[in-house]
Automatic annotation (TrEMBL):
Superkingdom of source: Bacteria
Protein's name in the database: Phage holin family protein
Lineage: Bacteria, Pseudomonadati, Pseudomonadota, Betaproteobacteria, Burkholderiales
Alphabetically ordered keywords of this record: Membrane, Transmembrane, Transmembrane helix
Source species: Ramlibacter agri
Transmembrane segments: 42-65, 71-93
Amino acid sequence: MLHPIFSVLVSKPELVIQHVAGYAALVREEASSVGLEIAKRAIAWGVTLFAGLVFLVLAGVAAMIGAVHEFHWMLVIVPAIALAIAVAGFLVARQPLPEKAFAELKAQLDADAQALRAVRARS
């Protein structure tokens, strides 16, 4: 005797196609929300690295200007702005991913597995 899944596959393939399409839509929906978080982090890391390099360059220039001329408060403020941007980017980049990433997909897979076990137990 064939497993009930095979009989459904043969007799009603459109149900299986609809089920697989539902999974694809669920994966696409959840991946887009997580994908936005990953893209946000990648941009934040880029901003952090760029602002860090700008800070190093401006701090070096400020040190050279400070050595040649008299000290001015702008020699500290301008590199500090780049450093503040780097720190802000770092804080955004280090935020954890949402814990509920793909939780709905995992729940749906568990429900389908449980339904298959119930069908197998009946036959």
